[in-house]
Amino acid sequence: MTKINGWDFLKLINGLRRAGINISMSQVEDAWIALNRFPDLPAKNILEAMLIYRSEDQALFQLIYNLTVNPPQEESSPQNTEGAPLPSSLEVGPPQEGLGTGRGGITLALMSDDSSQSSSQPPILSFQMPLLHNLMHLKGFPSAVDHGEKREENLEKQVRFILGQAGFLTWANSVELARKRGQLTEEEWARFEEFKEYWEKELRNILWQEEVKKQNNWESLRQVNWRYKPLDSFSPQEEGILHQALRQMGNTLAVHRGLRKRKSIRGTLQVSSILKEAFRGNGKIFSLHYEDYVLKHPELVILCDVSNSVAPFAQFLIYLCQRVKSYFRRVRIYLFIDTIWDITNEEWLNQESNLEEIRSWGRKNSSGFSDYGKTFQEFAQNYLPEISSKATLLILGDGRSNFRPPQKEYLQKISSKVKHIYWLNPLEEKDWYRGDSLMREYQEFCSKTFPCRTINDLWQITRKVFI
Amino acid sequence: MWKSVNELITALEKEGYLLDKEKAITLFLALNMGKPCLIEGPAGVGKTQLALALARSTGRKLIRLQCYEGLDLNKALYEWDYAKQLLRLQVGMSDWEEVKDNIYSEDFLLPRPLLQAILSKEPALLLIDELDKSDEEFESFLLELLGEFQVTIPELGTFKAKTPPIVLLTSNNTRDISEALRRRCVHLLLTYPEVEQEIRIITNKCPDLAQPLIRDVCEFVAKVRKLPLRKLPSVSESMDFAQGLHLLRQESLDFRKLGGTLSVLLKYPTDLAKLEERIKAWQMESEQKS
């Protein structure tokens, strides 16, 4: 059973906090008391129970725990460590001479049940991972982040490199081919996908561990934390977390109360009505009246840039607005690149995975180059008369207008009509005023501008704009 | 209270609730550290059942507060008995100061579940069910109760629990619970059970069913849970499904004989259509295999 000493315990707390998980002093105290009171229980379980209060943070906890309490040994292979058992459902065949590079005990096998069987027989899924740490030091390993490349993109390149060197990709291609030929059952395919996902996740963990060690800095792990991860870098599996967070956010908005009150069958007692009724003297001694707050029903207009760089962010904002649509008096959604499309009544908006539609919308209907000036002109001339003065306008865009004229008088006209204009920018704040960006010109007409890169940003926007 | 995790698992098992070791450790810590336990997970995984089984096994009085949108302190904590107060005023009393003190005494107080749990003389288990359905304001109020096991009534003062109740909160994740409240609780995530665990649960609850049927149903339901459905089948639904097949005198699961029974498992027509389509593919695969 893993024990933990005080120093490792403090390192763990520090790591978790630096990676963006808030841990209070009373939690630290409780965790330490629990560790001492129940020495027979696994320290990892105790710490996870006492420190982690969101299931989404469990993976990050595992990663930091393994770094602080079970640091990876240079010479051992990750599949032999406690934290990385092979998925039990996968049949791993005996070590085979395979297609790998010959380093680190690579073995690969995609074989039939019996070698004498015909090729139409379904193959057994079998693959043994090599020593992954060795592969990281091979020539050509993309260790440096290229100019303009995100850390996540570089990480994915590294994962692909290691899987390629391990022979995993060749094996995966063979399995996919077998699937296309109908030689794999759905169950076997599901197991293969589970296996693939498992190893990709393991590799990412190992690479993050290497990164933290190299930089000697926990902050880099913030990029693994779902709260601070750019919305366009979520994997399809992680998008589930994101959708759940947005759903919850939408529901939070849905039950948010305004300041007005009205009669209700429950709520607070309406003293004036009770007294009036009592003084009326119509035979009743008294009857009780209640009042309750009325839910807020704001009017919302969303204007989303769907050029390639912004489309992934637009998906999540539109999804959030869709979730709360029924709670707004009116929601209008417009997409734009160099012209505007009203998509408020599009059927596909109600589907959860509408990213492809949003991405392809621009390709189908425009040149693909954003023109903010022309967009604002069209909006002011064609759509503004239909919008009430109580509306809030949310603009999602990076402000990059391909060096076209800003035509800021139209945004000024819009701002004089609507109640608020909030600009949500998916770029990092340091990039807002660079190159062809028109943020500086437009900013003066906005009530506020917000960064909108991560789920945490969306939370902040939700609180400041809607509540 | 139990001295070890195994004791807790055994006690819950006696009450018909099977909990795996890792989750039992979390619950054991919450109980022994005297902290509230926030149980999260999809609908139908047994969150409320865990609270009920725990109440039975500890012999504590169960006090349940069902949350809903618009739940306020009058319904959750206490309410002044206005009718009684008005009657008291009509009876008449000359000294206003005396009347004022009199009508705001404990005689005119109607304790609701939270106050009942605090004032209870016998040990109690407080279940705050579906917390995510309540409003944020209500959550903020719970902070004092969960942190200090005390509540404040402005007219009467602060009431502190003599015997702190066991507090379990459940949430279906429809709304995000605030970090402040989460930090005061030990977090327990219940998910759909593994196949073997589900077999044990159904065998335990429905001993009349044939083992091959139970295994087939659990393996089938595990496959169904991997599909992209709007509402995945819960444990109780897979139990109903197994019982339904048993009533139709089926000893094992046969894809060709599932017509009409799937609606026990899934509740949305779109989900049913997806599953029926998938079953055809599974059937073809199994025929090819055999």
Describe this structure in words.
The complex is a heterodimer of chains A (467) and B (290). Chain A has 467 residues and is of the alpha/beta class. Chain A has helices at 6-18, 25-37, 43-51, 58-68, 132-135, 151-165, 168-180, 186-215, 239-254, 271-280, 311-323, 355-365, 372-383, 408-417, 439-443, 455-466, and strands spanning 107-112, 123-128, 257-264, 268-269, 290-295, 299-305, 330-336, 340-342, 392-396, 420-425, 448-451. Chain A has four domains: 6-68; 78-225, no CATH class; 260-295, no CATH class; 299-466, Rossmann fold (3-Layer(aba) Sandwich), CATH 3.40.50.410. Chain A is built from 16 helices and eleven strands. In chain A, strands 8-7-6-9-10-11 form a six-stranded mixed sheet. A three-stranded antiparallel sheet of chain A has the order 3-5-4, with no helix packed on it. Chain A has a two-stranded antiparallel ribbon with strand order 1-2. Chain A is globular. Mean pLDDT of chain A is 75; it is low at 74-124. With 290 residues, chain B is of the alpha/beta class. Chain B has helices spanning 5-14, 21-32, 47-58, 73-76, 82-91, 96-103, 113-119, 136-148, 179-183, 195-205, 211-224, 235-247, 262-265, 269-289, and strands at 37-40, 61-66, 78-80, 109-111, 124-129, 150-153, 157-160, 166-171, 186-189. The longest helix of chain B has 21 residues, at 269-289. The termini of chain B are far apart. Classes of the chains: A alpha/beta (467), B alpha/beta (290). The interface between A and B is large, with 43 and 43 residues.
Strand content of chain B: 5-15%
Oligomerization:
heterodimer
CATH fold-type name of the largest domain in chain B: Rossmann fold
Number of strands of chain B: 9
Question: Main sheet of chain B, how many strands, which sense, barrel?
Answer: 5 strands, parallel
Helix and strand pattern of chain B: HHEHEHEHHEHEHEEEHEHHHHH
- Under CATH at level 1, the class of the largest domain in chain B stands as Alpha Beta
Mean pLDDT of chain A: 75
**Main sheet summary of chain A:** 6 strands, mixed
The name of the CATH superfamily of the largest domain in chain A reads von Willebrand factor, type A domain
As a whole number of angstroms, the C-alpha radius of gyration of chain B is 24 Å
Q: Count of DSSP E strands of chain A?
A: 11
For the record, the count of structural domains of chain A works out to: 4
By DSSP (H or I, 4+ residues per run), the number of helices of chain A equals 16
Number of helices of chain B: 14
Stretches of chain A where pLDDT is under 50 for at least 5 consecutive residues are 74-124
Question: How is the largest sheet of chain A built, in terms of strand order?
Answer: 8-7-6-9-10-11
CATH architecture of the largest domain in chain A: 3-Layer(aba) Sandwich
Low-confidence stretches of chain B: none
Radius of gyration of chain A: 28 Å
